Amino acid sequence: MAAKEKKDVKITVCDASQKMIDLARDKGIETSFDRAASMKPCPIGAVGSCCKHCAMGPCRVPAPKKEGEPQKTGICGATAETIAARNFARMVAAGSAAHSDHGRGVAEVFLLAAKGEIPGYGIKDVQKLMQVAMDFGIDVENMSVDEIAVKVGELCVAEFGRQHGEITFAKRAPLKRRELWRKHNMIPRGIDREIVELMHRTHIGVDQDYKNITTHAARAALGDGWGGAMIATELQDIMFGTPVPIKGNINLGVLKDDEVNIIVHGHEPLLSEMVVVACQDPEMLAMAKEKGANGINLAGMCCTANEILVRHGIPIAGNFLQQELAIMTGALDAMVVDVQCIMQAVKDVADNFHTEVITTSPKAMMEGARHIQFEEHDPINTAKQIVTAAIENFPNRSETTLNIPEQKEDMVVGFSHETINYLLGGTFRASYKPLNDNIIGGRIRGIAGVVGCNNPRGVHDEDHLTLIKELIKNDVIVLTTGCAAMACGKEGLLLPEAAGKFCGSGLAEICETVGIPPVLHLGACVDNSRILIAATAVVKEGGLGDDISELPAAGAAPGWMSEKAVAIGHYFVASGVYTLFGTTFPTLGSKKFTDYLFKGLEEEWGGKWDFEPDPIEMAKKMIAHIDARRKALGIDKARERVLMDMEMRRELDAV
Ligand code: SF4
Ligand code: MSK
Fold this sequence. Notes:
With 655 residues, the protein is an alpha/beta fold. Among the domains are: 3-45, no CATH class; 252-401, Rossmann fold; 409-633, Rossmann fold. It is built from 25 helices and 16 strands. Helix 22 links the parallel strand 14 (553-557) and strand 15. The chain is globular. The termini are far apart. Residues 267, 302-303, 319-320, 341, 452-453, 482-483, 524-525, 562, 564 line the site of Broken Fe4S4 cluster (MSK).
């Protein structure tokens, strides 16, 4: 199908993206939106009913079309539920591996930095270092900060290869949750071990009990959320600074027509932290001037963007589905990628422009791209090489292909758990008490985590925005990360002013009084671990039950696409959260297995999965769950007085 014929089909709610998609189609340049339209998903594979775990297959076991028809099994006899569970579990394994390998990379660099072996890297957040050291049982009294950092680095690296016991951060979870995990043998021994075992169990002829597979998948996923991803978040904060509220800009309009434009894209902040420094280097700026540019403009994409946004206010050019579109502006001198969520197609689009695609990780190379390897012992030197390459490419830019959309939006980001604690806390000490009190009092109805990717199988950004607006309209405060956070940023939902425009009266008054947006940007995909910590802090503060599963809270990823999203979803479910996916769900081919995920799990774990492609219906389900939890806690009546009188307002002002 010719690209131009599809022009009238709504594919994004982002005007800047639409402009670039139209431009690509006019030029005959194919993007993921075109490929999604022309390639329908395999109806058997999409619902988890195809197994290719051995060479007797692939075996397809779709649900019978008519009642009474027998359900096929694989050649080995594997049932539809075993096959769906194995496929699901392998998604969890891959997603957990991705986050955890990110975490391992951070831990290794942290250790080198702690030993003073990386120029430019050190300890920025000593308080958090002490907190983590105490989690590991380190005797901080008699050690210097450097010695503590080395010990923390060694112990974090060891968490990955640990063979016995329990991963350290599991102890951060509420006691009731840990007891439940122990009962079901779900606490990870070591991060790598559970992933390896999950791959073993899902090999032909091993674990053929879908419930048993699901439980071990949770053990691997918990090794991500409470292990690899949490290590990544904590050590990044210690090394680069724990985020505090900071202003930023978002959308393709952040690119500049008179400056060298560099986008860092992917997930790891290790190199991009130094690219930030290199872009401000007088030598680099002089070189840019020599080449005719008025400066160097650094922007981010996907979660690398979130990492440097929340710590430095570096603008974001766009989320996952905008990576090809950023190149369509003709203004991009270098797209620098690390790992995860990088479409191979960026190179094809770049071939139509002067843009140089630069890979930096030996784990993520791309045919035809330039490779400048991240040297962990000397990141500033690598960063300068990259910035130099972009500067040298600036004169190759053509005025005739320059098309930067004007759209860009302001936002306030950087709501780490510590910041939420501080902002919503009392006058004399940070605490979650005022937040809990406002939930108990009904001004805040509940908490939602809305996270995850964009997927061209739906309208870009639309479901995130519809869902989130419906939630905040109903006084549900939203915590967000990843590409969902970026959709919110583009829509102005990450501004304190959004409260008056979009929120119900209870949430609006809280946000206006405290001066926060109703949607709090917590960071990148690995920073979903911050949501776990925030949820635990709410439990520990008291008054809202003894476990995460008792909170008036729910989670969603309406536009998910990656295996990491499945891992995240599974560790939230295993942590007690009602978690919904939109777009599609990868197990629907097996009713038995899907029923177990959507219904059976709740009885065992307190959390459960669900699938709802309509974002309004999704919001209704989340709110119904929140209300049911409020009722169970005996705080449902408080919702009847959501409007604040003057006395309530004074009380809030005083905290
Ligand atoms: Fe088929 Fe069983 Fe082999 Fe899977 S493991 S491909 S179901 S024979
Ligand atoms: S980048 S995993 S598309 S959120 Fe973290 Fe976005 Fe999903 Fe990648």
